UniProtKB/TrEMBL annotation:
NCBIfam families: argB (TIGR00761). The lineage of its organism: Bacteria, Bacillati, Bacillota, Bacilli, Bacillales. This is Acetylglutamate kinase. HAMAP family: ArgB. One of its GO terms (biological process) is L-arginine biosynthetic process via ornithine. GO terms for molecular function: acetylglutamate kinase activity; ATP binding. It comes from Alteribacter keqinensis. Residues 3-239 form the Aspartate/glutamate/uridylate kinase domain. It holds the Pfam family AA_kinase.
Length: 269
């Protein structure tokens, strides 16, 4: 039986991923061992379009403050161009893919991230209809999921891609690999930037407190930890520019940053 691996493709690298990256996913899809599922972001593209429209956009701890006007652009970019481009790139690489958002088929049950929050229409996923993912996978296709979700009563929410990926991976008891534009989480030691190969929950929280981890890395790390406590079997952050990052992660090689809930952690290289 295949094991699910949820691959979160960050907007930071989406338009720069090498062709080999998609070929790797096609190769995984054709094995008996792995079933890839993509959850993607697209933050920089959303910001670009908002800027063109003259709409100011702000972030709190890596989350975009989302008004109704912002949400319209978010949904257009994520569930429109980004999702369909990914599907097309995977098909070109030899893997059939099926793109949809958390709204479609009520894949995600969504509620506001925080009650009474200035973040506006930012949501969190409370339930994932995994049967939809199973169905697409059983047809031999790679599910490609855009992180927008509804509450079933007509309200749509902007979900951070990292948050959505962790919810999907937790529900599938999957491995979770964040593909981003950095070689892993770095910290500074003796004035030099070094990649941390392993990080525990306590270390991650203290690095956030001490502002070593900032911006978009905050939801990534917090989602990784949430994933581990909700069924994710292994989680790492790797560089998407290198097509071998994902297979190396799956083979257990020391690559990027592995986040753990236990005591083993904080190893720099
Ligand atoms: N300690 C850190 N280590 C690595 N990256 C960090 C760290 N703190 C903040 N970042 C930032 O987080 C970014 C990745 O987050 P984000 O831009 O949201 O990526 P993605 O679009 O891939 O999800 C990096 O490009 C970097 O600028
Ligand atoms: C609530 C929130 O922050 N939503 C994100 C959704 C896209 C995303 O997560 O994109 P990256 O993976 O490229 O960061 C946003 O509006 O930018």
């Amino acid at each position: 039986m295949k094991k699910y691996v949820v691959i979160k493709c960050g907007g930071s690298v989406l338009d720069r991923l090498p062709a080999g990256f998609y070929e790797t996913i096609a190769d995984l899809q054709h094995t008996e061992e792995w079933q890839p599922v993509i959850v993607h972001g697209g933050g920089p593209l959303i910001s670009e379009l908002l800027e063109k429209q003259g709409v100011p956009t702000t972030f709190t701890d890596g989350m975009r403050v989302t008004s109704e006007g912002v949400l319209e652009v978010v949904e257009m970019v994520l569930s429109g161009s980004v999702n369909k481009k990914l599907v097309s790139s995977l098909q070109k690489a030899g893997a059939n893919a099926f793109g949809f958002s958390g709204v479609d088929g009520c894949l995600f049950t969504t509620e506001p991230m925080y009650k009474e929050s200035a973040l506006g229409l930012v949501g969190k996923v409370t339930k994932v209809k995994t049967a939809l993912i199973d169905l697409i996978a059983s047809e031999g296709m790679v599910p490609v999921i855009s992180p927008v979700g509804g509450d079933g009563e007509g309200t749509t929410y902007n979900i951070n891609g990292d948050v959505a990926a962790a919810a999907v991976a937790g529900a599938l008891n999957a491995e979770l690999c964040f593909i981003s534009d950095i070689a892993g989480i770095y910290i500074e030691e003796n004035g030099q930037k070094k990649t941390v190969h392993k990080m525990t929950q306590t270390e991650a929280e203290s690095f956030i407190q001490d502002k070593w981890i900032t911006g978009g890395m905050i939801p990534k790390v917090r989602s990784a930890l949430d994933g581990l406590s909700s069924g994710v079997t292994r989680v790492g952050i790797v560089n998407g520019m290198n097509a071998s990052s994902l297979p190396d992660f799956l083979q257990g090689k020391e690559i990027g940053t592995k986040i753990t809930a236990d005591k083993e952690g904080y190893r720099v290289g």
